[in-house]
Amino acid sequence: MVKYNILLTGVGGQGLMLLSAIIGEASTMRGVKVVTQEQHGLAQRSGSISAHVRLGDAYSPMVPIGEADMVIAMEATEALRYVEYLKPGGAVIMNKRIMHPVIETGELVKRRRENLQYVTLDQVVEQLRKRTDRVWSIDANALAEEAGNPRTENVVLLGAASRVEGFPLPRDALVEAVKKAVPERTVAANLAAFELGEKSLG
Amino acid sequence: MTFSDIVDPEPKTAFMLTNHAVARAVLESDAKVTAFYPGSPTSEILDSLMELSRSYPDLVMEVSSNEKVALETVAGASMAGARSFTSMKSVGLNVASDAFYCLGYTGVNAGCVLLVADDPHAHSSQSEQDGRYFAPTGHVPMLEPSTPQEAYEMTRYAFELSEKHRVLVLIRTTTRVNHQSAPVKVGKVERTPIKKRKWSEVAAKYYTLSDTARRLKGEALEKLKVIEDELNGSQFNVVHEGEGKTGIIANGVSYLHVMEALDTLGVKAPVLKLGTLYPMPRKLVSEFIRGLDRVVVVEELMPFIEDQVTALAKEVNPGVQVIGKHSGHFGMVGEYNTAIVTEALARVMGLTAPRYSDVLAESQKLKSILPVRKPTFCPGCPHRGTVWSVLQALKGTSYVVNNDIGCYSMLLLEPYGVTDSLLCMGASQGVSSGMQHVLEDKVVSFLGDSTFFHAALPGIVNAIHNRHNYTVFILDNSVTAMTGQQPNPGSDWGAAPVDELDIEAVLRGMGAKNVTVIDAFDPKPNVDRIKEALSKPGFSAVISKGPCALYNDRLKRRDRVPIVPNRVSEEECKTIYACVRDFYCPAIQVDVETKQTRIQEDLCNGCGNCARLCPRSAIHTTGGD
Q1: In B56-108, which residue ranges form alpha helices assigned H by DSSP?
Q2: What ipTM goes with this model?
Q3: Contact A34/B1, CB-based, under 8 Å?
Q4: Which residue of A has its CA nearest to B407?
Q5: Which terminus of chain A has a smaller tally of CB atoms within 10 A, N or C?
Q6: pLDDT band at residue A41 under the 50/70/90 scheme
């Protein structure tokens, strides 16, 4: 199979590692070659985190610069933070949500007379569009709430990603992997989240 | 990966993290005693073995007070005849090194394996230490995997090698291998019952000293020659035939980057992947470099392989040009990636690499709008309140802060930037002792509960005995939080039943006269309590108690106890920002329209410290609605 590279990004604590495990699990179930690279430890404390997923005939566990076919971002600014990995014209599935870092909020308050502004979703999307026009921003937080569990934002985004043309894993494998990887009592909410994610992309 | 794949005894192919594959191999190898001190990037090994010990009662798993004790524990078990295993991070082996170097002399009895994980790039360590040099200086054989599958197989083999030659075996990994996942083909778990034996059945001695030390060192070196012969034919060293007179030698994750780079560049150069790093299989390496004009050595950190290849080349192929770090093609700082390796190989081979630097430069421009995001204390973290109180108490005074290793290390990052020194586990105590001899400022230090037991005790004993003058803040969150909330000697739980040590009682037992205990979730009254402790001459300790938020939230989810967030009242908030200034909770943001603060309720764990700091009492619990 030809290589398909996915970079997962977000903020520590959002469930990014579970997302990488689900994709790895689905690939293994279908005999698709897969290698992933995760991040644990220090950065997980509300820091910027990423996970690399490589499907097909790849060697290195890390997506090379400029070769990510898709970026799935659980937080909007984190979609842009790793833009060097994105292939020109690659797909970006991103959460609309911005979790403003404490440094940014601290500055906003300290320098309130200067009327500083938070970075906005529109600004982030505008920058991303300079590298690709395939950007989908999704209100995963609202859809996760609708699915019955705010912690299913990751699976909402996975559902959306699965609808992007060229995404190499079949729906049934992803659903099966979600069922296997998430805690039993959250299976229903996660499956609802997956479907809402799928629909969000039309 | 799910835990069910590791625990299920049947053979299978499952998607696994390297650390989980290693734990599975330890289980399949019938190791009986395992002991660890957690440390990134190895922590998932001990987490899995703790879980496994609950399903396999013949498997002993212990969280030790430090890495030295862990290594000594598994060495003792091996001497007594049971297979044993420990793993630790790079700098953990520094702590364990005293025992390690002796074990290189004495050897072991039953299979005894030590995995040490280096951290190129210092992702979550205080240095980029290259642990490979422990092997030649300790006379201990060393293997290094590239993939989860290989890590599994090497761990199985390491037990065989250890037992066959009665030597400790080192497996060296790096972060990008420990935290790599892929499908792994594992075997069947077949455990034998654990039984107590008699020491008389062992009939061996494990000590060194004087003439014994010299004899044992000689024997250890002789064993390494035999092992080298064996490793020349090892399945873990792989030669990829290729074209041309430029060959590549690589190890670990660098080997994977090399294969990717050659693919990208469209060349088929001969490659030797080294999986047995010490003793180096000189016969195999000699054969590989014999016909080459140039040999490129690709390895992260220091020129461990390169220097040995250079020495070997002098004997077998003096004309070969060795390209690596000394030639300036590769660096010694930071980790490698495909771009770095592709660019260097392209330069050597006169080819054109993709324009990585252009992509990086353009991306930097696109990213210029982004705010800085550094790791920081989680919502609900007890440290946030403690640190707020300590900094309030110190305000207007002249002081120096000696920090230590744990979540509170993050104090050195923005937005705090409150750290003057930070060396290694427990060092804040000795450094404070030295500084109080020289400085007129107030000397303060930070410690966590796990670090207190790990390596700070000798420093505190020393400070009390020598009547040193400084204050230590012990942030007791009841677990080893940063590495994934493992238990420590102050915890009331472990893999098996434990006795919990009380830090206050330990300090008083050691003779500390000024010990204050505070509640991390009582920030305002704590300021005066801390001021009083700081005013006492001599050694004083303030123990701040409050459970780790991640650990506490996990317990709540497990027990189905609701996590009830707080909310800022729009009527009462007067935009004073006491909940932002010097507090910095990631759950709190400013509403762009109203300029009031807003709590992101799915992030808030309801600790209530922000509410306690609000002068208008404008923050209230949502009550779970």
Answers
A1: 67-79, 90-106
A2: 0.97
A3: no
A4: A42
A5: C
A6: low
